[in-house]
Amino acid sequence: FNIVVLPGDGVGPEVIAAAQGVLNTVGDFYGHRFTFEEHLIGGAAIDATGDPLPPETTAACLASHGVLLGAVGGPKWDGGPRRPEEGLLGIRKAMGLFANLRPLQVSPVLAHRSPLKKEIVEGVDLIVFRELTGGVYFGEKTRTADRATDLCEYTVGEIERVTRAAFRTALNRRGKVTSVDKANVMETSRLWREVVTRIHAEEFPQVQLEHALVDSMAMHLIRRPRDYDVILTENMFGDILSDEISVLGGSIGLLPSASLGSSGPGLFEPIHGSAPDIAGQDLANPVGAILSAALMLRHGLGLEDEASSIEAAVAAVLAAGAVTADLGGALGTRAAGAAIIDAIR
Amino acid sequence: FNIVVLPGDGVGPEVIAAAQGVLNTVGDFYGHRFTFEEHLIGGAAIDATGDPLPPETTAACLASHGVLLGAVGGPKWDGGPRRPEEGLLGIRKAMGLFANLRPLQVSPVLAHRSPLKKEIVEGVDLIVFRELTGGVYFGEKTRTADRATDLCEYTVGEIERVTRAAFRTALNRRGKVTSVDKANVMETSRLWREVVTRIHAEEFPQVQLEHALVDSMAMHLIRRPRDYDVILTENMFGDILSDEISVLGGSIGLLPSASLGSSGPGLFEPIHGSAPDIAGQDLANPVGAILSAALMLRHGLGLEDEASSIEAAVAAVLAAGAVTADLGGALGTRAAGAAIIDAIR
Ligand SMILES: CC(C)[C@H](C(=O)O)[C@@H](O)C(=O)O
Ligand SMILES: CC(C)[C@H](C(=O)O)[C@@H](O)C(=O)O
């Protein structure tokens, strides 16, 4: 399998190295060979080429079986002519990655580290489907001395494809979809609600569907997160709500994500950022990147057993308390990665 | 003082009645006379006139010393040609209410009812300044069979005036402003950040200013809410974040808001919604509406002592455990209002 790795900025290279180590171990065990081709993105790409997404990076990603990304961005590039984030948004668009999946399970051994009460977060098991190539992220922007605008736009087709992906996933889970919008204010949200309602009625009547407004959802996710199974929402609301709930499990450093298109390779990345304050110090939690590698095996390469073996190893290591500083542990990035490799073996 | 009351929908009339009772008591005690003129808004106005904001309502509000609003909306008007929310958005725009203030203090006696751990929420004391008449709420909307758009727009002047209001308030508090945007994606956010940075440097250098991205702010507000003093943000982000933190104090039913313009009357409303499921049953918590009346006395009518007397009475009643069902108590809306009136006396 030909894997493109995009270490990016900040702690990105460290967590990607840990994930590569885990993939090599799984490959040895199950008899697969992963070849890693490294490319530039984000601030690192700006420094080297002036372009946050060099054309070779895009070409390599499109030709790969899957892309593993670390993180992009950092204050170093603030105010520069190009922004590292352009690289991330550009590769999402170029690869047609319209569905961003963010699963969240609160581990019973870590529930006590949550800012929320244990009885509220214990047993949370949900997945966010965030639309990733539309909305205000990619609409036209204008700027004059006195005024700025951003256009939020959605087509029926853009809403349909991510909606189908969310409903299909719900069929294999607890069978409930919560669609989040701001239909009392936004026209795009009213279209969103119409399309989701129609796809539900026509194609997935056996799934339970509810609609929620983004503001009240921001409350409910803290008061009763266990009530949710699949959460479906547009790009910006998904960005905010999935970061909000990322604290439920004790550390954002634990969480993976998968970004998928209709065919072709997916992109897999931890949801934490580049964390420039701890970069290069062997302090970052590699679990988010390692679980992203597991999602790549499952959703990108169809290797379910291999994915599960990584997830089981991570669970065992967390249960044993072999964790990094963000979880109150003493392990560095490399040692935490090595502990997971040992557990797989 | 000539006060317009807009009871609106759902539990609105019940909580507004409680707030009027409190205002009458304060008036008797301090020697003010409040005359209440009641007008239609929202679903109630649609039912009576077909228009969620009848022209007489707007005229009366503009001619008043202050407006007290209950809540608007409910499933009854879903899918109708006019939406109750149009009334609320319309009156905000017509009165030029560009700054929505949402103070949040977590009462030590109620901290245990928060979904967050006591040690995280105890002592939280912050205020959100949400821009209220710009952004995606009021930009042009389009809709075809296949496509919908919403335009998010901000001018320099719109950002300046709410920014000044937030900085002025910070001077009387702990002297810190956190401005929230999505400057790595949105052009309006980049303008927002520029203007806030300039107003800070030119007019309020003694205040501490930090910028945060809306997604990471959604996390920080749960992990370390005590770190914030004044939070300044645009309309939609303010809607989401202020609802998110509304659960911190144990019940959204406790929270008031003030919406202010540059001159002219303000509008004061609890931040809870119309709660149609419990409407008409004497179950709603009147505290949010009563504290909104206190904000009207302070910010609208310049009656600081009178406002403080209401706030002290509410604190005493909460400490005594005389609370409604949302806080685990046995009191109805009327009895909870009466308890606060007794405490003022
Ligand atoms: C870095 C930024 C552009 C990005 C986004 O907003 O999509 C990030 O927050 C994310 O969620 O992946
Ligand atoms: C009812 C709705 C239009 C309104 C808003 O989004 O502004 C409400 O959520 C609020 O926060 O006052």
From TrEMBL, chains A, B:
The record marks Y137, K182 as: Important for catalysis. Residues 2-340 form the Isopropylmalate dehydrogenase-like domain. It is an enzyme of class 1 (oxidoreductase). Mg(2+) binds at D215, D239, D243. It is found in: Cytoplasm. Pathway: Amino-acid biosynthesis; L-leucine biosynthesis; L-leucine from 3-methyl-2-oxobutanoate: step 3/4. It comes from the Bacteria. Its main location: cytoplasm. Signal peptide: none annotated. Binds 1 Mg(2+) or Mn(2+) ion per subunit. It holds the Pfam family Iso_dh. Keywords: Amino-acid biosynthesis, Branched-chain amino acid biosynthesis, Cytoplasm, Leucine biosynthesis, Magnesium, Manganese, Metal-binding, NAD, Oxidoreductase. Homodimer. HAMAP family: LeuB_type1. This is 3-isopropylmalate dehydrogenase. It comes from Brevundimonas balnearis. The gene is leuB.
